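Incident log entry.

Two folding requests arrived from the same account within the same minute. Monitoring flagged them as a possible duplicate submission, but the sequences differ. Recording both here for audit purposes.

Request one:
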Amino acid sequence: MSKNFENVLEQVHHLTRREQLALIASIAQITGEDEPDVFPEYVIQENRRRLAAYDAEETQGIPYEEALAYVREQISEHR
């Protein structure tokens, strides 16, 4: 991971939840303008369901480092 990306990621962790969601929406809009939909609707709906459960404190989140390690593992397995 580049140092610039690490710096940006660190700053994102200091944003409020609302600011993080706004940032995600902005990035999605920018990247989605030239790209077809990447995620099927059922994936989006499942993501929304899980986020609502987390926001309602019905479930716990996965620690960032653990989630990042999992994602990296999955990417390396599918290369």
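Request two (distinct sequence, not a duplicate):
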Amino acid sequence: MTDPTLTPKSSGTYWGTSVADIQTSLSASGGKITGTLKYYDDATKALVQDWGEGYFIAVGFSNYSSGLTYANCEVGIVPTQGAGLVHLDSDQDAVFKVTSPDQKIIAIQTDANGHKRATYWSLKDITYAPKA
């Protein structure tokens, strides 16, 4: 079984917020995500209304191996702040709030045909832009 591909989003809108408003120049390679997360505090947008102001990261998942679909994947930031890992839905995208410097990885857990696997993407090389 091969791991799903994680790709940082470069465009799009989530909960009324443009990806350009929360991140810039993100890339993923070799188990590491690099680039810059922007501090986001627009209280008129659902992202902040639902999760509070702070740093967010938007990523997509694709390229599932045989027997695996988005429905077999759970994703989240570890350590979690209470939500735990959640199942991907049909858009196969996720937006996570990075609430602490201790949250160092995005986890992907898959379960296909009884074969379970976990993969991790490091966030330790992310730059956090200061609040504007």
